[in-house]
């Protein structure tokens, strides 16, 4: 049996950084390996965050690079391979080539538990590898298990096995209601998410112990572990908790999350960046492109240079068209109208920007 590796990917964003701090603080017994997938197209603040984290963790964060034998940045190397075809939400070759493939090479065939920083106030599942030797865990959520695991535990074909496991567990107070829910079949009027949430509402720790016992009968990486400390985790962390962890640890919040004031036609607004990752990420909202132009004009110019031969970062608008005075004015006014009055006590406007964040980009931040 191979030793189980515990890994955590640092994207340069707030959530993965806060998760690294959280795991170091509350689960120091886990020997976690930290890595980051470097595209060569990050903002300087991303690299500063990684340096700050290395000091806090007392560990090196391994930098994984795709096409590491190329004389070009990884993105530019693969852009040539794709004939200048820019990535988009319909063709996300950047995620595959620059993030997922380097990660899976780093893992190899080792049994791996991968910790993912999806918060308790987010409604998305996140990246789940197709490789059977990689298991994802979500410490910030009430349900720390991935959907593929909970589906097996709650599947009607496994009801008897799961009930036997529950009865065999040494729990302080077994619940009849918990047993009734376990025996209840999934049907149109009682869906799997409903069943899962009711079980978690009754007792998160008991559910975690049950799942861990079930995993012992499978080929998942955690089947090899005698003990897993997160079965006793019933915390749920949301956005405010993330910023608090970053600030109180001394690691700090990346500057691109902090609000910057702007004025248009006598009205004041604030903008910020909602994500880490490449400065030209196609998932950015229009106001974030304007933020990039006004805060990092040299990076905006570099992003413009990629738009040629009919390929653009946005489906219906070239970056140079955004720079027309009337268009910039419209984008800012539309954003102010949407955002309403800024929260007086909040340093960050990320919540407004994240409302429309594409769920599909979750794999960019493994």
Q: What is the CA–CA distance across the termini? A: 26 Å
Shape summary: globular
Q: Looking at the chains present, what oligomeric state does this protein adopt?
A: single chain
Helix content: 40-55%
Known CATH architecture of the largest domain = 3-Layer(aba) Sandwich
Q: Tell how many strands the DSSP assignment holds.
A: 7
The total count of helices amounts to: 15
In the CATH hierarchy, the third-tier topology of the largest domain is known as: Rossmann fold
Mean pLDDT: 90
| Radius of gyration, in angstroms, nearest whole number | 22 Å
Strand content: 5-15%
Instruction: Report the structural category.
Output: alpha/beta
Biggest sheet overview = 5 strands, parallel
How are the strands of the biggest sheet laid out side by side? 3-2-1-4-5
Q: Spell the H/E element sequence.
A: EHEHEHHEEHHHHHHEEHHHHH
Task: Give the structure's gist in a few sentences.
The protein contains 15 helices and seven strands.
